[in-house]
Every structure is written in structure tokens, then in C-alpha cells.
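## retry 2 of 3
previous attempt timed out at serialization; input unchanged, resubmitting
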Amino acid sequence: MPEILSQQEIDSLLSGISFEQPAPAAVVPDAPPEREAITFDFRLPHRLSKNQLRTLQAVHESFAEALSSYLIARLQTTVSIGVTSVDQLFYSEYVLSVPSPSSLFVFRVVESDALAILEVSPQLVLAMVARMLGGATEGEKKARSITRIEQNIVRGIMQRALGDLQKAWKTIADLNFKLERYENEGDFAQIAPTSEIVLVVSFEVGIGDQKYLMNLCFPTFALENVLAKLNVQHYSGFPGAQRESSWSKEILKKVGQTTVTAVGVLGTTTVTLRDLMALEPGAVLRTGIPAAAEVQLVVGSKPRFMGRAGVSNGQLAVKITRSVSEQSKTEQSNG
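## retry succeeded, writing output
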């Protein structure tokens, strides 16, 4: 049987135990809050660096500018194209994002013998077809499969788009693109394994008041040699990166050499046709403007400056006192 302790034995045991209160925790003044831990997904593809992505975005912005200029002349309406995003993801994820039906123009990167995709929304294709055939720019609201005739109509535009894309890529690599075939489903394109990382460049195309989507999909193995050479220094070589510094100086240089005609209006008056027919040399017309008053200096049929008439180096001249905009501001403040 287990031995049972008496109350005296229990009291003697408890008397030998000392109960100590825990010391209060030290308070650290202005302690920074703990940062929240974020779960990292090791499956996220990060094969392209930020510098490479910025360079690729500049390349495709140049492509968008060239293609929009061509479409303005081809469709005879306002067209705007802008790059919305440059992403890297798995090819399986890209295929899942492709709507059905879609318009996929598969082209070949000749140097690497790999395939890439120019994805155009069916509504954009139908809007271009409608405009080229003399219709409105709205096109059809609902997506549908593109017929063989409609494919042939826009094929020339797609080939021109690849030509502009090839010229844009020339700034960093000598690549050639060749249109191969047309597909209306993403599953049928099969340009890369499902686990391959692809570069997807998204565009927003505006035709008239309507907005449409367009994507470019490159498998990264098709651009391995190019991506290895890309760095931030390439960015300064693009026409778009130095547009303001180079174009504006050249334009200002040419405009500065342009000759314009300036006319000093000493005064105006109104006469009847009878008085006009009776005018003879030596006749005096009263303008109602004092001789010492300011006169208008007209450039391009519009009054630009106010000045005072006089003589400079033996020739009649007008000394500019202020611009017409300054005069209007003064009149408004006085009023």
C-alpha cells in the first residue's frame, strides 16, 4: 500500500519551499514593432532582372509608337497603343489567361528557331476589319471566332506589326520574326512546355473611343542569348529615351531659322464707299489714335505685341513694350 503523509509531514515539506515572485520584464523604450513575416513562394519565376524588364519595356514602347502611327494611316482614325505591363510567368498560367475564342498569330524567332505569340482580342480584329471595309470603329461587342476571310484581311496588318516589332528589337538584338500560322485557342498554340517561363508584354489599344487588349508572349529560351547581354545601359540607346533631348533641340533649331512677317498697325478707321472713292493724294484720314499711343504688332493675322513707332538707324521701326497677353491681364485686373 502507498504510504500516506500526515498533515505535519506535509507542513514541514511546504515550509522548506520559498515562493519567489518573477521579476517584471524590462521595458525597452521606443522598441521597433516586429515585422510581419511573409511567406515566400519559391515557384515564382524570376529569371529576368528589373533592369532587363525595364529595357524590354522600352523596346516595346518603341514598337507601340511605330504600330500606332501605321494604324492611324491605315484605318484613318485615332489610334493609341500603350504598354500596360511586362510580366514573367509560367506558360501554363499564360494559356489559362487566354480567352476562348481568341486570335493568336504564331510567329517564329528565326535566330533561335522558337515560336512566339502575338495575341489580339477578337473584338480588336473585328474593329480593324470593319474600319478597313468602310464601317464604324466600334466593331462587335461580343467575341467570336474570326473567319478565314477576316484573317486574310488583317494578315497584312499583323505582318506589318511584326516588322515594327523587329525594328524595335534591333536596338538591342538582331532578331527576325516570321509569321507562321493563326490559332483561335490557346491550347493549340503549344509554343513551349507548360513549366517554361515566358515573357508576356501587355498592351492597351485604343481605336476611337474603344479600348482593346493585345499581348506578346515570348518563351525565355528563345531569347537566352539576348537576355544575357541586356543591361541598363541599353536603355539610353532607344529613340524614345532621348526623344525630348534630341528631337526638341532639332525642332527648335529649324523653327528658329524660320522667317515671319510682322506688321505694325498704326491705326484703323471706317469710311463710307463714297468717301473712299473721293480720296486723293494728300487726303488725311483721322484714326482717333494719338500719335504717341502704342500700336499693335500683328504676326500671322493675330495681334501679338504692343509697341511704340519710331526710327532706328534711319528706318521706321516699332519698339515692343509688352505682349498682348500682358495687356489683357492688365485690363482684367483694372476691370
